[in-house]
TrEMBL record:
It comes from the Bacteria. InterPro entries: D-isomer_2-hydroxyacid_DH, D-isomer_2_OHA_DH_cat_dom, D-isomer_DH_NAD-bd, NAD(P)-bd_dom_sf. Keywords: Oxidoreductase. Residues 108-287 form the D-isomer specific 2-hydroxyacid dehydrogenase NAD-binding domain. This is D-glycerate dehydrogenase. CDD domains: GDH. The lineage of its organism: Bacteria, Bacillati, Bacillota, Bacilli, Bacillales. Pfam families: 2-Hacid_dh, 2-Hacid_dh_C. Residues 6-315 form the D-isomer specific 2-hydroxyacid dehydrogenase catalytic domain. Belongs to the D-isomer specific 2-hydroxyacid dehydrogenase family.
Amino acid sequence: MKPKAIIYKKVEPSILAYIQEVCDVVYFEQLDSSNLESFYEELRDAQGLFGSGLKVDAALLEKAPRLKIVSNISVGYDNLDVPALTDRGVMATNTPDVLNETVADTMIGLMLATARRIPELDQLVKSGKWTSHLAPAQFGVDMHHKTLGIIGMGRIGAAIAKRAHFGFGMNILYRNRSRNEEVENAYGATYCSLDELCQQADFICLMVPLTPPTTKLIGDREFGLMKKTAIFVNGSRGATVDEDALVRALQNGEILAAGTDVFAQEPVNPDHPLLSLPNMVTLPHIGSATLETRQAMARFAAENFVLGMQGKLPVALLNREVFVKA
Ligand SMILES: NC(=O)C1=CN([C@@H]2O[C@H](COP(=O)(O)OP(=O)(O)OC[C@H]3O[C@@H](n4cnc5c(N)ncnc54)[C@H](O)[C@@H]3O)[C@@H](O)[C@H]2O)C=CC1
Ligand SMILES: O=C(O)C(=O)CO
């Protein structure tokens, strides 16, 4: 008999078929209030859970006593309580690296869109209000040859640094949990404190994972340190920024403009105060959302999943130490 797996996200037929080769699959294209009870029912004897975004914590694990693996179709795994999974002997996997280039492209696009006011000026043209030459008050600011501060110089941060250095001739500052000599040598990046980065950078890009220490990492104090001409962009998770503080910083002219791909609550409430600010550019969490990259992520997550379901070590195993020892 094949082990039972739950897929709780819409996946391509080829991914479904690949997983079905080794598992009996219960397939929920999405989870909502209409099917949550039947999902919990199915969890009771499921051995694998495949999807993205579901909060998997000790309370959910209580409902899933036979679980062996949780495979996330994302690199960020702030939805997973890895210590709780580890305590229960459940493998946790994610999809690092395959999305680095795409997410870095998105962040460069977001910085340019914010600096050059692309969404606002697109609306000007489409609404028929482009009736004369633009006034200087409508001009953007340059990105090339400015100083970019990257907070979180990991896999994606480094891919952003590469583009900024070679494509835009930017000077790069960075803050990380530890120094990254590769980006210093390859892109001339300089390691500095968070405060120095906030004070000196023209563009600030946040690319950290969401953890207790990074929750509201950027708030009133940090916006207060930034240049009044600074452009701040967030590609990490919404909760790494104090959104109320961001609203205040934009309204009070503490920074020039901001862009974000992520919100503390997603999808964002249409009444959220950030959405009505003219100097705020927003995206609906599309950092990795290209056809090619989403396929690569789903494939990687499925490979991790199948290996785990077969009792083998998945490639991107977050709690590897436990299973290697065992
Ligand atoms: N907007 C989107 O669609 C996407 C968002 N993400 C987010 O980006 C995050 C980063 O992804 P990767 O680069 O693959 O992760 P990574 O683990 O390679 O890099 C994260 C870096 O942040 C640093 N860091 C952690 N805590 C820090 C702190 N308090 N201060 C400064 N630096 C700190 C780490 O040292 C590490 O180098 C993911 O965890 C996810 O939340 C990832 C992919 C797509
Ligand atoms: O992978 C992630 O962490 C995302 O946010 C979506 O790609």
